[in-house]
Amino acid sequence: MDVAVIGTGYVGLVTGASFAFLGHKVICHDVDKAKIEALKKGKITFYEPYLEELVQDLLPKQRLLFTSSLEEALAKSEVIFIAVGTPTAPNTGAVDMTYVRQVARQIGKTLQPHRYYLIVNKSTVPVGTHQLVEGLIQQSLSETGTEKVNFAVASNPEFLREGNAIEDVFYPDRIVVGCHCSQGLALLKTLYEPLIEQKFNLPSSFPARPSKMSKVPFVQFDPISSELIKYASNAFLATKITYINEIANICDLVGADVKDVALGMGLDQRIGSAFLKAGIGWGGSCFGKDLRGLISEAQQRGYSPDLLLASLKKNYEQRYRAIYKLQEELKTLRGKKIGLLGLTFKAKTDDLRDAPALDLIERLLLLDSTVKVFDPLAMEELQRLRPQWPLVYEQNAYDLAEGCHGLILVTEWEQFLSLDWQKVYELMKKPIIVDGRNFLDRQRLEEIGFVYSGMGR
């Protein structure tokens, strides 16, 4: 099947590469010509495990193509995925639909008569966007005088985790689609058949198929429900993390260990263990944006979603718990050297969007601390984002630790587990560590002599 993907950001590139691997001919479009030229050479502009390797393998086979010409992208395509950015609008929390609107109009100007097209919203979009896109396409067709174009608009939300996108796209929990057109639904089912039936094998170096996985649910809803499922899913997961962080704070007060509490809770099948890891809060490009988007949807209709508002508020408060724990030991942080182990909002990504590290650094600088940072992937990105911040950028964890009065473990990079912690202890001026992810070996660190403080431990 011929497929076009409009937008080569995180969602678009993962989507395009996966369909190409499954045997479809995919052409990805982006207005950024420099990005397109890089992709043609197999270079991607962000880090995601296995993705660049997948793209480089597909390029010589001519199953994955890249272009900055929308006409070229749509020339033969039966299915057109819209995967452009939908950022949060400043001040309002609503979703900025500028790029979706632009693409819908451009698609309408490019469609050819006497053909059937299925346009699929892959971007995370507000409820009713399928109607908006359909109307804008129809408007453009009328303006250009193009007649006898048969098209439908569907919703097909993505459920990708940064750092685990290859596993999520090839071994998904479910495939959600929303479309009123039977022909469009049939196209989507054909497109996804290899995933539904799991009729493929990834290279041996890629993540293995889960042992009990044999078939993926392909679930069909009306487009409005399909659009809301993505928001509802992410809002629930974000709230679940916020909840266990609240329990962690209570554990600190009463003397319990949140890791034990979470284990005991997670064994209840009604609750489950996933997303019950306490820490300094979630970040990234999805949870905050989707929570705000869902809140905005409700408020526009006169409803106050108090639980979601509280979840958002408490998450950002949670970030500063690490600083409060340092203050308990050091009292004032003025003039103290504080090191941040990790910067990205999670491991296996170079993404700093809404990363807790940014809020921690900003607060520490306001407290007149000297802030040292180290991350395996995100150092250059932080310098680009915050060139005005007077930070000390170190090239490894040992240089970071030297002379520090305290360390905060911000990102759960695996390499931090294998550090020579005795050496780290000897390099520090005050051996205090706040484990913001409850990731490190508390017993081992305390045996060395560290003052260890976890979250809810």
TrEMBL record:
- The Enzyme Commission number assigned here is 1.1.1.22
Q: Which residues bind NAD(+)?
A: D30, K35, T86, T124, E162, K289, R353
The source's superkingdom equals Bacteria
Cross-referenced Pfam families, in alphabetical order?
A: UDPG_MGDP_dh, UDPG_MGDP_dh_C, UDPG_MGDP_dh_N
Q: Name one GO molecular function term.
A: UDP-glucose 6-dehydrogenase activity
Q: Which SMART domains match?
A: UDPG_MGDP_dh_C
PANTHER family from the xrefs? UDP-GLUCOSE 6-DEHYDROGENASE TUAD
Q: Which GO terms describe its biological process?
A: polysaccharide biosynthetic process; UDP-glucuronate biosynthetic process
In which family does this protein belong, per the annotation? Belongs to the UDP-glucose/GDP-mannose dehydrogenase family.
Keyword list (alphabetical) reads: NAD, Oxidoreductase
What does the record give as the reaction this protein catalyses?
UDP-alpha-D-glucose + 2 NAD(+) + H2O = UDP-alpha-D-glucuronate + 2 NADH + 3 H(+)
Q: Which organism is it from?
A: Heliorestis acidaminivorans
Which residues are responsible for catalysis?
C286 (nucleophile)
Q: Which InterPro entries match?
A: 6-PGluconate_DH-like_C_sf, NAD(P)-bd_dom_sf, UDP-Glc/GDP-Man, UDP-Glc/GDP-Man_DH_C, UDP-Glc/GDP-Man_DH_C_sf, UDP-Glc/GDP-Man_DH_dimer, UDP-Glc/GDP-Man_DH_N, UDPglc_DH_bac
**NCBIfam families in UniProt:** NDP-sugDHase (TIGR03026)
State what protein this is by name: UDP-glucose 6-dehydrogenase
Q: Where does substrate bind?
A: F159, L160, R161, E162, K230, F275, L276, K277, A278, G279, G283, K346
Q: In which pathway does it act?
A: Nucleotide-sugar biosynthesis; UDP-alpha-D-glucuronate biosynthesis; UDP-alpha-D-glucuronate from UDP-alpha-D-glucose: step 1/1
Which segments constitute the UDP-glucose/GDP-mannose dehydrogenase C-terminal domain?
A: 339-442
